[in-house]
Amino acid sequence: MYGPPVDLSFKDLNNVTGAMSEVPRIALRPLRTNSKNKYLSQALRLSNNNITNLVGLEFMLSHFLAQPSMLGWLDLSFNKITSIDYVLGELKELRVLYLHGNDIWNLNEVNKLGGLSHLHTITLHGNAIENLKGYRSHVILALPHVKRMDFSAVTREEKVLANIWCKTFKPAKKEEKYVSTDNRVVIFVKVFNGRFNNGGR
């Protein structure tokens, strides 16, 4: 469906734009190109590098792919990514996304992918979020179209239980106020992961 991937794995990349100076690994099935030497593929592999963020991903996709907006399969596994960049939410044709083996620690990062209506397969195991309470339920609720997560099927029963978990165990936000020395009222909102976001008014 996607064609053989443009394979830029094991290139010792520290950022995605660094891939633009690399030649894709030779695939078992040859990659076809158009008249502008852009690859006629809808799949990209960037796994097993040292990538920490996805700044410049859109430029890299345009550099390699004939139709970058049609990207349907993306492997970012085994990197050092700490957060989910909003650029992934712009890949509206994305069906399969591998993010396992990274350094994502905030479960709410997954919410950035909620607008990907075609996304049916995702991996996130091997990140710090895997050890958080309600991990699988949160992902299932945030990505209602996903059918497979961490290489296992998402069942109807899991979706029901995820909804129950959300209503039963996920606490409402709690506001705490105090008056600072300059008489400003500062609001602290206690979020689910136990950290605090603050703002003055």
Structure, briefly:
The chain has 201 residues and is α/β, with parallel strands linked by helices. The chain has 3 helices and 10 strands. It has helices at residues 57-64, 135-142, 156-168, and strands spanning 6-7, 43-45, 73-75, 96-98, 121-123, 148-149, 152-153, 174-179, 185-190, 196-200.
In terms of topology, how is this protein built?
Layout: E1 6-7, E2 43-45, H1 57-64, E3 73-75, E4 96-98, E5 121-123, H2 135-142, E6 148-149, E7 152-153, H3 156-168, E8 174-179, E9 185-190, E10 196-200
Parallel strand pairs: 1-2, 2-3, 3-4, 4-5, 5-6
Antiparallel strand pairs: 6-7, 8-9, 9-10
SSE topology string: EEHEEEHEEHEEE
Helicity, as a percent range = 10-25%
What's the arrangement of strands in the largest beta sheet?
1-2-3-4-5-6-7
Q: What is the count of β-strands?
A: 10
* Biggest sheet architecture: 7 strands, mixed
- Shape designation: globular
Cα end-to-end separation: 53 Å
Contiguous helical run count: 3
Unreliable stretches: 173-201
Structural class: alpha/beta
Regarding quaternary structure, what we see is single chain
Report the β-strand fraction as a percent range: 15-25%
| Mean pLDDT rating | 87
- What is the C-alpha radius of gyration, as a whole number of Å? 20 Å
Describe the model:
The chain is α/β, with parallel strands linked by helices and 201 residues long. It is 14% helix and 17% strand. The chain has helices at 57-64, 135-142, 156-168; strands at residues 6-7, 43-45, 73-75, 96-98, 121-123, 148-149, 152-153, 174-179, 185-190, 196-200. It has a 7-stranded mixed beta sheet, with no helix packed on it. A hairpin with a 5-residue loop joins strand 9 (185-190) and strand 10 (196-200). Helix 2 crosses helix 3. The longest helix has 13 residues, at 156-168. The radius of gyration is 20 Å and the shape is globular. The relative contact order is 0.10. The model is unreliable at 173-201 (pLDDT under 50).
